[in-house]
Amino acid sequence: MLGMGAMGSRMAANLLKAGHELTVWNRDQAKTTALVEAGARLAGTPAAAVREAEFVISMVRDVEASRRVWLDPATGALAVMAGDAVAIESSTITVAWAQELARHCQARGRAFIDAPVAGSRDRAEVAQLIYFVGGETAIVERVRPLLRVMGSAVHHAGPAGSGAAVKLMVNALFGVQVAALGELLGFIRHLGVDEATAVEILSSTPVCSPVAQRAAEAMITGNFAPMFPIDLVQKDFTYVLEAATAGAGVPLAEAAHRIFSRALAQGLGAMNITAVAQIYR
Ligand SMILES: NC(=O)c1ccc[n+]([C@@H]2O[C@H](COP(=O)([O-])OP(=O)(O)OC[C@H]3O[C@@H](n4cnc5c(N)ncnc54)[C@H](OP(=O)(O)O)[C@@H]3O)[C@@H](O)[C@H]2O)c1
Hints:
Blueprint: H1 6-17, E1 23-24, H2 33-37, E2 41-42, H3 46-50, E3 55-58, H4 63-71, E4 86-89, H5 95-107, E5 111-114, E6 117-118, H6 121-125, E7 129-134, H7 137-150, E8 151-158, H8 162-190, H9 195-203, H10 210-221, H11 230-244, H12 251-265
Parallel strand pairs: 1-2, 3-4, 4-5, 7-8
Antiparallel strand pairs: 6-7
NADP nicotinamide-adenine-dinucleotide phosphate (NAP) binds at residues 3-8, 26-28, 31, 59-62, 64-65, 68-69, 91-92, 117, 120-121, 227-228, 232.
C-alpha cells in the first residue's frame, strides 16, 4: 500500500487486522511507524514496496502524487509490479488521469482499476468505506473481496475512469450541500431566527439529507475537527471543473469552488468541510 496519510494508514490497519501480508510506503516515513509496529513491512520506495505484491493500492493526495508513485522513472511502482498483480488507484483523482493510468497499465500488461472511496477518516477506521470502481468486470470481481476488507460496499460503475467520475459526482453533491448550509445558516441568523431551532425544523423536513443534518449540527456546535479538510474539498472541485469543460457545464460546482476558495484564503484549509460556515460569521 502506497500512501499512509489519514485515509491510507487507516485502510492499511484494516488489511493487517484481516491477516493480510502488507508492505507499506510513505514519502514521510515517520507516518509508517505505527503500522510497522502492527506488523507491516516497510519499503523505501514505491518500487521496493510492490515487487512481490498481488495487489498494489495507492492512496495519495492528488494526480501529481499518484503520477509519481506509479510512474516515477526511478522509484515508480508500475514498472516493477508482478505480471499478474492488480494496480488499484484509490486516491481521488481526475477522470483523465484515471484513464491515462489505465492505458499505462494496459501497455505494460498489468490489470488496473480506479477505486476511490466515499467516507471520511471515521468510516475508514471502521472499514465502512464505499467504493466506486472503474475497470473490467473480471478484475473488479478479483479485487472485490480485498476492497470489502476496507469498505462496506463496492459499486462497479463502468470501465476505467468511471469510479473517478462517480466519486467526483458524489463529492460535488456533498460539497454543494455543505456550502449551501453554511450560507443559509448565516442567512437565517441575520434574520434573527435561532439557528439551532431552524436546523431542528429543517431536519424534520424531507428536503434535509442525513449528511446535511450532520453538517448543520457541526456548524452550530463549532466542531471543525478535520475529517474531510477544506484543502481536499477544494482539490476535488478543481477536478470536477476540469472534467466538465467538455460537457454541459457545472455552474453550481463552480459556485461551490469559489466559496471553498474563499475559505482557503481565510486560512481554513486544514479544518473540516463544515468550517466553510465560518466565512459567514
Ligand atoms: N479525508 C477524507 O475524508 C477523504 C475521503 C475520501 C477520499 N479522500 C481522498 O483520499 C486521498 C488521501 O486523502 P487523505 O485524507 O489520506 O490525505 P492526507 O492525510 O493529506 O495524506 C496524503 C497522502 O499523500 C501523500 N503525498 C502527498 N503529496 C505527495 C507527493 N507529491 N508524492 C508522494 N506522496 C504524496 C502524503 O505523503 P506525506 O505523508 O509524505 O505528506 C500522504 O501519504 C486523497 O486523494 C483524498 O482526496 C479523502
